[in-house]
Amino acid sequence: MHLPITFGLLGLLTAAVLLLRLCWWRLPRWVRRSLIVLAAAMVMMRIASDGLQWSTVSTRLNALLSWGAVGGYEILLARFSLMRPQWLTSLSAIVLLAPLIGSALMLPLTRVFDWSHADISSIGGSYIVEKSPWDTDAAGNTGVDLIVFYSPRFAPFLRHLRERASFSSAECRTEDASVKADLTARTLHFHCPPRVEGKPALDVVLPLR
User: What is the value of pTM for the model shown?
Assistant: First the structure.
């Protein structure tokens, strides 16, 4: 999961922003203004991406944008902590840093260190599926997410999240998990073969939104 190196890089980023905070008022006004505008733009881009569920087809580019949003968020907090009374704004900024270590944000950040090619394939029409393996801990709790996207023909570098299903390796053979799209009935059939012979397969049918 690359969590140790991700936490390490996040610590370095935070240290760099703290250094920036110390010399903030020594920077030219246009530099300070540009940093605020760029930081706000990166944060808003991430919020819009999550809210509208649009992303790029490049997993690493998505991760880099997530890192940019984290850096922008920390810069905004650093500027906020310089407002008066500083004891209150600084304490508030420290509290507002806590969400950065949540799994919902940390997991996308780890993908910048994943050099394996994303397993993406077409399932018909403008729909694609990405098989995204996951590993939650060192005890071997692994599985796979099957994520279905709509990729418009006029912008094949973009994708819109439509549906997803998650399977655990303890329940079925996640390496053989698949999804089929019925474009006429507007349904998605997620299938994961049984790990033990005689056990039922895991099947999930969801509407194609």
Answer: 0.84
